[in-house]
Amino acid sequence: MKQNNISKWTEEESQKFLKLYQTYGKDFKLITEQFPTRTYNQIRSFYYNVKKKTQNKQKQSTQSKNKSQRSQNSKKQNHDDSSSSYLEIFEVFE
Length: 94
Prior knowledge:
Layout lengths: L10 H14 L3 H5 L7 H32 L9 H13 L1
Helix pairs in contact: 3-4
GO biological process, one term: regulation of transcription by RNA polymerase II
InterPro entries: Homeodomain-like_sf, Myb_dom, SANT/Myb, SANT_dom, Trans_reg/Corepressor
Keywords: DNA-binding, Metal-binding, Nucleus, Zinc, Zinc-finger
C-alpha cells in the first residue's frame, strides 16, 4: 500500500505529471503507477486542482488583456512559466 503523502507537490512531481498526462491523458491509474508516494485520489485531485487554477488564470489573463487593450496597448503582462506550461497542456486535451 502506498504511503499517504499529503505534502505539497514539488516542481519535479508537477513536471513529471504533465509529461505523463501528455502521454496517458486522464488515465490516472497508469499515471499513479509512476508515483510510488502518491495515491490515485491525489493524482486525480492534482489534475482537477491545476485545471481549475489554470482556467481561472486564463480567464483573468483574457480579462486583463481586454482591459489593457482598451486603455493602452504598450503595457506587457508578466506570466509565470509553470502556469503557461499548464495552460498549453490543458488546452490540448480539452
